[in-house]
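Quick one, probably user error.
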């Protein structure tokens, strides 16, 4: 049994909050204890509070940074917590350097795929093989100090709880129900999906595309869809029950320009929803692990298209709209892909290997 100490100053909903919850559950299942230092206003608190193998230490984010910078000189609780830790899991890159003073294995989780401060860590965790490869290239090209040692690179994608696959027998006479979800920001590529919707309308392909989310680009996206006069595309606000939306849809579309992994990929595919996704880091690992041609990706649950390519996206959606048997087969494959390689047991195995590599005392 190890005691893992996670530290973050992140407060918002997103990959870090979700990872802290899934890590906590899987660590507990393997007999490890998870202590988490996080801001007192973090959205992750509600999901963590009921986990028996988790100890929460909360304070303002600025105070977390202060205690790290002062080696916890002014907090007996934190000094004892660091002394008891077998490994430090850092979820913000700027915390790595100050955490080295506690003389514990330092593991940096790069949830965004960025490479900042990875050379200061003993181990660096990425969500995808593409991001890990860039990190390796970066470290090779970086001149390390005379006595410095490059961190060990690990790939640990998100894990997803088991979900029943919704049986979908899609009527070829009905419009294909396509769903997308995410933050309305530039990197999510929703403007490209609107362009694809316009192409589908021009081709006479019967689809209805529903996009759920919010963000600063919401007015611009609404104007783009309105200016195109689209009747096959609708923007919705964010919903807390995406699962029900998935269960009443035929196909998920991920139009992102950049995506370190994409939690929504596993959430949708885990419910048996096939995928049209751009060739971003996470989608390449989930759909493209055996090859990127359509015959290979369909066996994993979907089709990959280049980012910023509305024509290719429209072509992929057209394929599923006109071949409902392929749609259903891809949905079955999607559910199996998540169950086989991205379930919570797989995440627990990967975290166990990381803890062993970090060298618990």
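Nope, works fine. Designed sequence:
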């Amino acid at each position: 049994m190890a005691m893992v100490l996670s530290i973050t100053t992140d407060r918002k909903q997103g990959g870090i909050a979700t990872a802290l919850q899934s890590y906590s559950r899987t660590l507990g299942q393997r007999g490890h204890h998870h202590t988490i230092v996080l801001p007192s206003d973090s959205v992750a608190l509600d999901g963590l509070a009921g986990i028996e193998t988790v100890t929460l230490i909360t304070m303002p984010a600025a105070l977390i940074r202060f205690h790290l910078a002062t080696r916890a000189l002014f907090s007996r609780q934190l000094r004892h917590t660091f002394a008891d830790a077998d490994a430090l899991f850092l979820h913000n890159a700027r915390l790595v350097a100050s955490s080295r003073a506690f003389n514990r294995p330092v593991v940096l989780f790069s949830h965004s795929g960025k490479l900042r401060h990875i050379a200061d860590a003993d181990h660096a965790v990425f969500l995808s093989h593409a991001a890990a490869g860039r990190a390796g290239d970066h470290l090779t090209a970086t001149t390390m100090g005379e006595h410095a040692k490059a961190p060990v690179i690990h790939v640990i994608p998100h894990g997803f709880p088991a979900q029943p696959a919704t049986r979908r027998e899609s009527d070829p006479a009905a419009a294909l129900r396509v769903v997308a979800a995410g933050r309305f920001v530039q990197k999510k590529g929703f403007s490209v999906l609107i362009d694809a919707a316009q192409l589908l309308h021009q081709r006479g392909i019967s689809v209805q595309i529903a996009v759920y989310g919010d963000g600063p680009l919401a007015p611009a996206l609404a104007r783009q869809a309105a200016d195109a006069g689209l009747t096959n595309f609708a923007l919705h606000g964010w919903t807390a029950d995406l699962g029900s939306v998935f269960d009443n849809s035929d196909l998920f579309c991920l139009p992102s320009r950049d995506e370190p992994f994409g939690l929504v990929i596993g959430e949708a595919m885990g419910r048996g929803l096939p995928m049209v996704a751009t060739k971003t880091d996470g989608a390449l690992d989930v759909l493209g692990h055996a090859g990127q041609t359509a015959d290979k990706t369909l066996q994993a649950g979907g089709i990959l298209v280049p980012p910023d390519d509305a024509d290719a996206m429209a072509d992929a959606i057209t394929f599923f709209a006109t071949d409902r048997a392929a749609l259903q087969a891809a949905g079955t494959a999607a559910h199996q892909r998540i169950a086989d390689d991205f379930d919570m047991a797989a995440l627990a195995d990967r975290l166990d290997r990381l803890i062993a590599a970090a060298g618990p005392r």
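The chain has two domains: 3-159+343-358, 176-341.
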